[in-house]
Write the structure tokens for this entry.
Amino acid sequence: MEAFVRLIVTAVLVLAVFPVSATSTMCMFYAPPGSPVADLEFLGYEKLGGILIQGKGGPRSLPAQSYTVIDLDQFAKRIHLTYKNPGDPSLPPSFVLKGQDGYTRLTVQGKIYIGKLACGRW
């Protein structure tokens, strides 16, 4: 019995030491410094399940009805998305996110910011 308990404790410690290799993150958009929109995390497996925006109080979901995904290709690291702020000042201003890989344009109120879309295994 004591050997079994040791085995269980060892297994728990091993799992605690190594990071979990599978998450629900499809892609991340890294906004450039000074951007009015923070980093975005696209959640899901094969299909988009939601978008988290990083903020001062931690991550927050964008309301599903506030954005339209025109194109999201995780393997090509390509995106075209429009977001319309639903009138909530705690959410980011309306924006368009379009591009591929390290040249992804974030357009907010007519200004263009270049960020990076990273997709793949986390």
